[in-house]
User: What shape does this take?
Amino acid sequence: RKEVEQDPGPFNVPEGATVAFNCTYSNSASQSFFWYRQDCRKEPKLLMSVYSSGNEDGRFTAQLNRASQYISLLIRDSKLSDSATYLCVVNPNSGNTPLVFGKGTRLSVIA
Amino acid sequence: ETGVTQTPRHLVMGMTNKKSLKCEQHLGHNAMYWYKQSAKKPLELMFVYSLEERVENNSVPSRFSPECPNSSHLFLHLHTLQPEDSALYLCASSQDFLAANQPQHFGDGTRLSIL
Assistant: This one.
């Protein structure tokens, strides 16, 4: 099982749609979780941290299920500007690897 | 505006050339990282420096040589690279190494092409 696994997409959705991304991680000792956003040919930027109780930031909601080793990101009322690749990122809490990145899920929001 | 700056943004070099990538962070962080991002692959961690000391991690070919002269600057020296080394090279920093709940902040990256 890969350390961090995501559906690569692409997800093509119309403006205003709700879209959900899922991510699974293999190391049950993992302690921190993040979603990053990466625009085409740009650097990854932190979108939000993921907390055990779930957290929301405007149109974005992140959820963590430790028992299933599963993280999700929900985007409501999609905007054209949400088009990007969304990276699931995990701190595995083992060895000397601070963060492990998923391959990313590509989202295209269409007018 | 990013707190981590990288130069150059683009670099084209031959396999026999020697060049260096530079990274500077203005965030007062203690840890700095080099990553490689190739098409359709996740980010690969290359090197980590914590408090200016290199942390042993993934094996990286010796044609890549990092240098961290102080906590704000990080270099990646390149020599006799191969075509498969063409990629986006990203520098990142975080407040501390291996601490929980600390995200990393990335520079714009250097897009490297080996001819």
Chain B touches chain A through 29 residues (CB under 8 Å). Chain B has a mean pLDDT of 92.
